[in-house]
Design a protein that fits this description.
four-stranded antiparallel sheet, about 35% strand, about 100 residues, globular, Alpha-Beta Plaits, 3 helices
Length: about 100
């Protein structure tokens, strides 16, 4: 069953630090079966606090999504993301 990682950027803190995150995150995908479904496209907040942007990644299974998120390469990338912006991230299993 597919799983989706959803990231919403709540607030940019430091653009220079955040700019280092993108290449690291992209490189972390090597060896993981992930499909980007949305990457900072046009969006509109309909309920709740506004967001600055969103990313949605599809993985073949919940376990595959967690394996990527907890991989050494993405662990290093997300530490860089924490320096650049405040995010909310969650995983949800599909149907």
């Amino acid at each position: 069953m597919a799983a989706y990682m959803v990231f919403t950027r709540e607030k940019m803190l430091n653009q220079a630090e955040f700019d280092k995150y993108g290449p690291m995150a992209g490189a972390s995908m090597g060896g993981h079966e992930a499909t980007p479904l949305a990457v900072y496209g046009k969006h509109e907040t309909l309920e709740g606090a506004p967001i600055e942007g969103a990313v949605i990644l599809s993985f073949p299974t919940y376990e595959a999504a967690l394996a990527w998120y907890n991989s050494p390469a993405y662990t290093a990338a997300r530490e860089q993301r924490f320096k650049g912006a405040d995010y909310r991230a969650f995983i949800v299993q599909g149907m």
